[in-house]
UniProtKB/TrEMBL annotation:
GO terms for molecular function: DNA binding. The keyword Phosphoprotein applies. The modification 4-aspartylphosphate is found at D52. The keyword Transcription applies. Keywords: DNA-binding, Phosphoprotein, Transcription, Transcription regulation. InterPro entries: CheY-like_superfamily, NreC/VraR/RcsB-like_REC, Sig_transdc_resp-reg_C-effctor, Sig_transdc_resp-reg_receiver, Tscrpt_reg_LuxR_C, WalR-like. Residues 2-122 form the Response regulatory domain. GO terms for biological process: phosphorelay signal transduction system; regulation of DNA-templated transcription. It holds the Pfam family GerE. This is Response regulator transcription factor. PROSITE patterns: HTH_LUXR_2, RESPONSE_REGULATORY. It comes from the Bacteria.
């Protein structure tokens, strides 16, 4: 796997690069600004871009804007955003693009190496990896949305799907059988109007509906 890293904090950038190298994941470019990210993506066409939200010169949303521009220039580019805090509006903008291969993690999650690497690989494969704190804040917005028809248990299952958990892991977390999990997921697909297609594609679409609702 080949990645581009955009992070202005030198120590964190070097730390992530070293961590990925230990997992045989190659960093083909490491930059400290948004323009550098877009240039690196176009030059190297990586499997994944790992991007900080706030970068020079204003430290507001340069990273996110650059990630969106890179995704537009290289359609389908998987993007994993790292942020110090939950930037709710930025999360929604990224997740509402209608495609998979997106992640949004708080930087503290990098400390859990196994979890972070799993998220990197999952997003690169076109899946999702959303921080539980991001999920909690988006859920608290209380907007009317297509998910109103879901039961409490189905919402729990979809929330765990958004974190990237497999059916087996969801069953363990909720202490139910894998068959029960599959039934809940089938109900979720039906209630969200997700017609038959590749299983992974429907999972991603369900998660994006859950997280990117407006």
């Amino acid at each position: 796997m080949r990645v581009v890293i955009a992070e202005d904090a030198v120590l964190l950038r070097a730390g992530v690069e070293r961590l990925l190298a230990d997992e045989n994941i190659e960093t083909v470019a490491a930059v400290d600004n948004g323009d550098g990210l877009v240039e690196a993506v176009m030059e190297h066409r990586p499997d994944l871009a790992i991007v900080d939200v706030r970068m020079p010169p204003t430290f507001t949303d340069e990273g996110l804007r650059a990630a969106l521009a890179a995704r537009q220039a290289l359609p389908g580019l998987p993007v994993l955003v790292l942020s110090q805090y939950v930037e709710e509006s930025y999360a929604v903008e990224l997740l509402s693009g209608g495609a998979g291969g997106v992640g949004y993690l708080l930087k503290e999650r990098v400390a859990d190496v196994a979890e972070f690497v799993d998220s990197v690989r999952r997003v690169a494969r076109g899946g999702t990896a959303i921080d539980p704190e991001v999920i909690a804040q988006l859920m608290a917005r209380g907007r009317k949305n297509p998910l109103d028809a879901l039961t409490a248990r189905e919402s729990e299952v979809l929330g765990l799907m958004a974190q990237g958990l497999s059916n087996t892991a969801i069953g363990s977390a909720l202490v139910v059988s894998q068959g029960a999990v599959e039934k809940h997921i089938g109900n979720i697909f039906a209630k969200l109007g997700l017609e038959a297609s590749a299983e992974e594609h429907r999972r991603v679409r369900a998660v994006l509906t859950y997280l990117g609702r407006t």
